[in-house]
Amino acid sequence: MMTTSKTRVGRAWLRPAMMALAATCIAAGPAQAQAPSDKMVPIAIPAQPDAITLNTGPLPGAKAQESWHSQYNSVFARNVTTATLTPFLPDPAKATGAAVIVAPGGGFRTLSMENEGWDVARALAAQGVAAFVLKYRLNQTPADMPGFEKSMSAMFSAVARPARPTPEAQIAGIAPQIADSRAAFALVRSRAAGWKIDPDRIGMVGFSAGAMLTLATELAGQDAKPAFMGLIYGPLAAVKVPAGAPPLFVALAADDPFFANGGFGLIESWTAAKRPVEFHLYEQGGHGFGMYQKATTSTGWFGDFSRWLGMHGYLKPKAA
């Protein structure tokens, strides 16, 4: 175990960029990312000895098997057919009892496992917060790299075509991923005592598609219910806010090509519902900045998120 590191939803939840979300792993990277560092290179599946298989089973109808590639000096997974959760537990002397499920992005076709997963989890563990990287099941893509690249190009060309399914259809479209998220919360809560975690202090942070999954986990109701949420460069359309919705942290770059021009309805929804919300709109950063070090203020998002967690008391043990 690494120690250092169907219910009602909003009427205007953003979906047109759903397909564009896959650009997380192609069109976005560190500021200096240029060829050849932006080239996707197949790699062997890394050892993940601490990964715990979730009980949601294999992806129905999957034919292509899990594979990985490197890009932007980081690593990505695709064709994930079985969901896992990898713990990053803090030093017991620093542990606060709070925990976070970390959901990487990648358009539900790939997962930025390092930049938006492991690196985030290590940084949280260093703050005393237990972190759990969710490798959720993905929509299938061609097994070969040229076929995968071609499918992504086709996705980009479809971005301009409007597609606005009902919110219920949107939730149904990511049903396997929501099931994986719910299973992640159930697992952490079932082992909370052993991991020294307060089961009432488990939140979730997601990136791009992972941000959509984080929001959907709350909106879908049922039994997951994050104690707090962080949405990093995710959709910001208005939603119907559930009663007692958790504190919300949102970070977005003003030059994000996918979500910066759709308004801030989500922020307005949370405000109108009189629920806690903090919103950081960075001048520059693009999409997919994650934990990459860039010459933009978006690089400071984790510090802002950490201070926000501290303001809500999650960076110290809960008072007796």
From TrEMBL:
Keyword Signal: yes
MF terms in GO: hydrolase activity
Full protein name: Acetyl esterase/lipase
Domain Dienelactone hydrolase: 107-293
Superkingdom assignment: Bacteria
Signal sequence coordinates: 1-33
Alphabetical keyword list: Hydrolase, Signal
